[in-house]
Amino acid sequence: MATAVTAAAACAQQVQRTVSSKASNSLLAPVARPVAAFRPAAAIAARRAVTLVAQAAAAPVAAPASADASKKSQYALQTLTTWLLDLEREGTIDNELATVISSIATACKQIGSLVNRAGISNLTGLAGETNVQGEDQKKLDVISNEVFSNCLRQCGRTGIIASEEEDQPVAVEETFSGEYVVVFDPLDGSSNIDAGISVGSIFGVYEPSPECRIEDMDDPEAMMQKCVLNVCQAGNELLCAGYTLYSSSTILVLTVGKGVYGFTLDPLIGEFVLSHPDIKIPEKGKIYSFNEGNYNSWTKEQQAYIDSLKDESKWNGKPYSARYIGSLVGDFHRTLLYGGIYGYPGDAKNPNGKLRLLYECAPMSMICEQAGGAGSTGFQRVLDIVPTKVHERQPLFVGSKWEVEYLESVLQNKPAPQ
Ligand SMILES: O=P(O)(O)OC[C@H]1O[C@](O)(COP(=O)(O)O)[C@@H](O)[C@@H]1O
């Protein structure tokens, strides 16, 4: 914050200097130049801008009740670090989990800066490799995966890490304590990278399952079995879930099971600062986000659902609006803040849809439920599904509670929710 204010002040002085020099040069200099020569409007606007920046910079963001009440300084900041400390103090999380989350935040800062500079550092385009799903990997898919894995290993608090970009989960030799299981999609929506459209990272943290501790590293086969078993946990076992959006801002949104909090990266101080405390998704919303290009391969119930959203006679003459970036994190973040529904149904080609249960569906469903929304396959609560394999796919419908229930009612031919 200090730097933001000094920056604002410096900018103010800069503008002032410009204004005053111009003024001294023109307005105030005795009758030298006609008034028209100098554009007062710009000066007023500049002064207004400076005031707004100073006011914005000075206004502290509300911190959760647990925040240290003694922090009276107007420069007190609730950062991700201090927020995690508050949660540790109140016993909601332990230090190991706080360390894992901090290491994920570090990875996201690194990935954010790489994404921002992709076009000028030859990081766009394909890596020339394919991942376990047979998809051509982008250079930044591979690099983001490496960055995420490094940070999770180096924090010493993870036991197993499983990436959407890797065939198998990996047991972490560097583990020191905690042994948390972390699943992640290092760069979601990467098909948008080269066009500079928003992308994101998604993650989930599980407790290591007690009956399969990874003691004997000597028997790789047995160890791998235990790794997979540890990772294939239902979403309702998640301790923490989150995503980072790399867009006009870099925003980290997460839950540890006590509401959803959003932190915006302040590039001036390199800290995630609390910007969205206790996010609540609207009960209803008028935006739907589906790739309608797949319409013809959808079930007739799925088609009927989308057709109904466009039928204004059902919605007091105002049909739903369609928004689709083609980047789950971007589409989900908008849905979380504005309400509505994001969906990736199964279809004739991919009966289970495209999205991965562990890395995408479960974490987003936990965040949505924690914000008062819902996450469904259309027939089942996503968080109740126990994965049978690490790269399992599931249809996903996530968003405002009423919207998801309405979708389920159409797909299951049930009466619409009240
Ligand atoms: O192009 P489609 O078929 O609409 O798929 C877009 C969806 O696939 C994703 O890109 C997921 O795939 P990746 O994790 O491989 O990027 C989502 O972000 C997005 O919502």
UniProtKB/TrEMBL annotation:
UniProt keyword terms in alphabetical order: Carbohydrate metabolism, Hydrolase, Magnesium, Metal-binding
Enzyme class: hydrolase
Residue ranges of domain Fructose-1-6-bisphosphatase class I N-terminal in the record: 79-277
Protein's recorded name: fructose-bisphosphatase
GO terms assigned for molecular function: fructose 1,6-bisphosphate 1-phosphatase activity; metal ion binding
Pfam families linked to this entry: FBPase, FBPase_C
Family: Belongs to the FBPase class 1 family.
